[in-house]
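Report of the visiting student (M.T.), summer placement. My assignment was to run the structure pipeline on a short list of targets and document each run. The first record concerns Glycoside hydrolase family 13 protein.
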Amino acid sequence: MPTPWWRNAVVYQVLPRSFADASGDGIGDLPGLTSKLDHLTDLGVDALWLTPCYRSPWTDAGYDITDHRKVDPALGTLADFDRMLAEAHARGLRVLLDVVPNHTSDQHEWFRRALAATPGSPERDRYVFKDGRAPDRPPSNWESRFGGSAWTRTSDGQWYLHLFAPEQPDLNWRDPRVREEFAGILRFWGDRGVDGFRIDVAAALVKDLREPLRDVVGGEGCEGLDDFAANPDHPFLDRPEVHEIYREWNRIFHEFDPPLIGVAEAWVRGDRRVRYIRPGELQQAFNFEFLRVRWRAADYRRVVAESIAAARSVGRTATWALNNHDVVRQVSVLGLPRGVDPRVWLTTNGTDPPADLELGTRRARAAIMLVLALPGSAYLYQGEELGLPEVADLPAQVLGDPKRSGKDKGRDGCRVPLPWTRGGPSFGFGGPRPWLPQPRDWGDYSVEAQRGDPDSMLELYRSALRLRREFSGNESFSWDDDRNVGDVLAFRRGEVLVLVNTGSTTAPLPAGSVLLASSPLEDGLPADTAVWLRRE
Ligand code: ISL
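After the run finished, the structure tokens were exported:
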């Protein structure tokens, strides 16, 4: 049987609002994306994952949906979507959509009807409405990922659950109408020709709603990575019943030929994450471990070993990511001193301490060469191929992310519209005023400025992706025990020897022909540098 396309694919994440703006209104759109698809084929990726483009009041970057079967008018029409899909397919690019099953917008027809209906009504049962412990005390201590209680009180005194913003009420997955609705949504987009879905907040759909509701011990919200020790039977995260949903979805995926795929966004530890990709469930799960470690060979070594072993234990491949639309861009993170929390750093507008972008860029170049050499799928986030840093100094009045508080500046800084040209209004993004302002030096990062410059980040990505095609189908991976010590990470993929030096001194470089290096090589492998060698 041929290897399914996704096992070792490179998937490029598109945030349509910030990718390219064809209408000139400052908001990226689907025609803009279509007009720039050649950038993706030129880069050499296999697929794109489109974050939500559905009808939405846009409280949480489109993750608050009012109609899952319509395109938001600011982004285009269904016809624009079909055109984009056809053009992508014509170029051999697969297309994954984001599906958001945990919650809807509070403007969704279902929620409006639920609010208008009485407690205990079938309308309310599609969501999670409960009585408080007292008139002014919510039903449990569950916290929203965006801060504060996960419960909001309605005018008749009942409370509704939202693990994210109050504008994102959680659906009740025990209600068969919710299951049917999402089965219909998957088929709707499957029939239009998409290749699969990224599943938002995949671990949290099913809640334990038996009364009285149980409090979470330790109070941690929805991140879910660390609070299972205190909450082995967590009331809303990673409950066993959630897997039933994905078994049903997998049956729907197999109604299509070739089958669609599902990628779980599940912020749970590796040993729990692999349960989402057991045979009969989903095909892949995001692996966020690289976002939690910071430039130390020993940590990368552990993450690589654990992730590969976990995926193999269920016959799947691992996935890797250095960036996404929820986290501070890696170029900035890797330019911060160890111990500085990037989110805390953001609250200082990136001033305390300043990020060393030269160092961060050098390390990010090496990091992507590590990622692209590993077996499994790599998920790239738009703009990382340009080496964009976090825009840490966005003025308060332009910030729109609901995940904001005194302690958190939010995620806008990694969502600033892309620069395509050296100059011109919005550096080729589109109209004169993009929805988030671009820094003045953005033109230096543009596709136009980097294309053809052998030292640029863009050309490094292009070269790495081209070379990767030669070995990516071969899933073999083995550590090079002699060299994989201390600050040097060393492993083999088929004939290719991969070395990454995270230390501060030059390491020995074995004989072999250099396929690619992240920085110029000296008499050895310099600090903060990666190399791919072919052994002679
Ligand atoms: O944003 C995070 C860390 O900064 C995550 O904890 C995030 O809240 C979690 O991964 C869920 O994210 C997804 O669903 C959210 C949406 O805001 C995110 O953009 C999306 O990736 C709610 O739909």
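The mean pLDDT is 96. Residues 321 and 379 are 5 Å apart (CA to CA). I thank the supervising group for their guidance throughout the placement.
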